[in-house]
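User: Please predict the structure of the protein below. I'd like the answer in structure-token form so I can feed it into my own downstream comparison script.

Assistant: Understood. Taking the following sequence of 187 residues as input:
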Amino acid sequence: MTGEPRESDGADREPDEHIRFAAYLVQLDQVAEADEIDLVCHVLSDPDRTMAQSAVVRHVDRRAEDLHPGPAYEAWVWAMAQAAGDRPFLIRRLEEWSLFRAVRLGLHWDADDLLGASDWLQLKTAAMSDVVTPSGTAVPSATPAASGTPAASAAAFEVLAEGGRTRRIRNTATGSLRLGRVTGRRC
């Protein structure tokens, strides 16, 4: 080395798809609700389908976490499913958020659907430490709620404790039951 600056051969440069991914995450985080679906469609039109879908899945997870307890979720998830088009992983993630919502709100759900869900959803459900009433109020699972949600949570914990796909899921669900998240009993 002579101490003089050398020309970069581009090897030190961040790959273009990494730059676009980071930019998409910022845009999706800041998008106005009215422009959200248009932006999601724009991101999903990126030639790197895997990167684009990954950015949108992160957005879906963030938005669904915020929206799932309330009434705005239903219209949002429908619009997102339309935007997702022919992307099975994205459609499945939206379906799993709807199943999580049903369990958490004490709505109708099917044990076979929960057992057929991804490890991600099973673990998220098994680790659920509170439930939400249909009005959107968080209630510890040990607290009786007018909607009967603790019983729904207990049923989900029991299903996953017995038939969860991995040992971690089964142990987490068993721990949720033992910790009194449903019964209010502390060991």
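That's the full token string. The two ends are 66 Å apart (CA to CA).
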